[in-house]
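A quick aside before the break. I want you to see a complete sequence-to-structure record at least once, exactly as it would be stored in a machine-readable document. Don't worry about memorizing anything.
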Amino acid sequence: MDKPLHDLDWTLLRSFLAVADHGSYSAAGRALRLSQPTVGRHIELLEEATGLHLFDRAQRGMNLTLVGERLLPSVRAMHAAANQAQLIAAGAED
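That is the input. The structure line, written in tokens, reads:
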């Protein structure tokens, strides 16, 4: 059974953002300190969970599809919110 969309794993979305920003699984893996196959698996799992095709393989890496481009701003906003939450939590520990 597929996961409901509200249960998407943030790790998969982080990999999506890294591939979108860095243009390839290998560069995204370096940025995230993950292996290239792990990043590829994350993208595959995310596409399966959403039923969306997010990237097209190109001669020089990965290109976002139109739906991937539409998803990107929301994932960027989630990333910014997660970073802000970490800063607040770190400040609360002081």
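Two observations worth writing down. Residues 66-93 form the longest helix (28 residues). The chain has a mean pLDDT of 92. We'll return to this after the break.
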